[in-house]
Amino acid sequence: MKTITVREGKERSLQRRHPWVFEGSIAGGKADLGETVRVQAHDGRFLAWAACSPHSQIRVRAWSFDEAERIDSAFFLRRIEQAIAIRARLPIASDGVRLVHGEADGLPGLIVDRYGDTLSAQFLSAGAERWKATIADHLLKATGLTRLYERSDANSRELEGLPPSTGWLRGDGATEVTIREHGWQLSLDVAEGHKTGYYLDQRDSRKLFADTVRHFGLQRVLNCYSYTGGFSVAAFAGGATQVTSVDSSGPALERARAHVLRNGFDDAAHETLDADVNQTLRAMLQQGRRFDAIVLDPPKFAPTVSHAERAARAYKDINRLALMLLEPGGVLFTFSCSGGISPDLFHKIVAGAGLDAQVDGLVYARTGAAPDHPMTITFPEGDYLKGLVIVKR
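Predicted structure:
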């Protein structure tokens, strides 16, 4: 077993069971890509078993803090079964579920979503990649399913020194899948959809949006960065009479239209715009259009803290425009999925947008990722998705 030694004083994060050790904290030792290593303090004390990522700034990712535990096939089966057992206890109104959420489930770099009878997985770290075949077999064993599609095409693979990898790992067949969510029918393609195929993390926020539209009697809805229209379906389900979906992807908007029809809503009441959101918001202001509810669910503007300043300007601008487009008493659902933007900073950005728009609002609710995308008390970096629901005064 190869050994990685951390610098004196840098062992504290591992002692607090934080799973990452950065390159600058390493005093010595090296290993092959994804190889399991013993991580020790400067005086030789055991700290963790971990996977080595020699090309990454995150040099090691901890598998276990128990010196007696072996990192073998049985270890991965236990972790997978534990993760699935936790989801079985959660009140999830869907057969689209995140089964494994990386560090939160003690499996750094591994993301696994279940869409009906199909699993879709991302192996995003060198350690997860090294154990891919074993993990794939255990996922099928633990779920009783036969189909597992790989979507290891995220940019973070490059940081690990890994090439993108996609395709069927186990089983085969059509990549189009239909799931149910809160009584709605939603389709996706595990080969082409964003992330592993869909944004399951917004499941609870979509339900909250439907309930809010119904409660306040909101009629005209603008869904920005709509993707395949999950929030648009939620708006109609809540009683909206006119919904506009804006996205820069024509194929995503086609699927959004199909979702509206599939769930029994009026296609004539659904406007789709294949356009840039920022430009569209500005044009709508000039046209004098107004809305009772607006959703802002943009892509990741700030993947790391170093991108936060530039991202803050972008978030502020779209929120300023949206607040100006809202009718008094209207509701804004605004989100950030950027890990580099903390909940506190995001609140300050939206507050600044309100000041620039000369608009005040009440914080009706705070939202985050659905509970099958957990954050643990030892890994606050897992808190990536944050949202505010604002009622305009």
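Summary: The first strand starts at residue 2 and ends at 6.
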